[in-house]
Amino acid sequence: MELAVNLAKRSHCIKAQVGAVLTKETRIISIGYNGPPAGTHNCDEEFPEVGCPRDSKGSCSLALHAEQNAILYAAKNGSAIEGATIYVTLSPCIACARIIFSMKISRVVYLHSYAEYKGIGSDEGVDFLTKFGVDVERYIPTAGFLLQEQSQPIQTPLVGERVA
Ligand SMILES: [Zn+2]
Ligand SMILES: [Zn+2]
């Protein structure tokens, strides 16, 4: 999870920065952070003041989500994703949940809640995954982990924050 938090800092998106680490049998098979596909846009450089173009739900309309980038990279490189665990700094949205389920990832560990970030009542991605048998758990930071987050603050979504 510490690696996922560090990866999130590499995201060029302005509002939300999310990192994901895909692991299999204690080894890292792929990493990802949210952002437009390679070779297209860098939101922070192109839209420093106005922010990324928003989709109808208020998310960056250009970005692939961290989970999608991690899974796509693993798939592109022929890694066996079935049975993997994904660590992600924000719980998966419903679109990512569908992909995670379809790729037969068996466990999801998340740090922050997408529902809290969006100010919505239920974590629909988590609900979907749980309903169809994927293990989902919220990461409980250890003392050392918390210290690290505090000394190097990252742009994590605030509870209840609404995007424009
Ligand atoms: Zn963006
Ligand atoms: Zn997503």
TrEMBL record:
Keyword annotations from UniProtKB, A to Z: Hydrolase, Metal-binding, Zinc
Pfam families attached here? dCMP_cyt_deam_1
Domain CMP/dCMP-type deaminase stretches: 1-124
Source taxon at top rank: Bacteria
Q: Which cofactor does it need?
A: Zn(2+)
CDD domains to which the protein is assigned, alphabetical: deoxycytidylate_deaminase (cd01286)
- What does the similarity note say? Belongs to the cytidine and deoxycytidylate deaminase family.
From the Swiss-Prot or TrEMBL record, give the protein name: dCMP deaminase family protein
The species this protein belongs to is Fibrella forsythiae
- Source organism phylogeny: Bacteria, Pseudomonadati, Bacteroidota, Cytophagia, Cytophagales
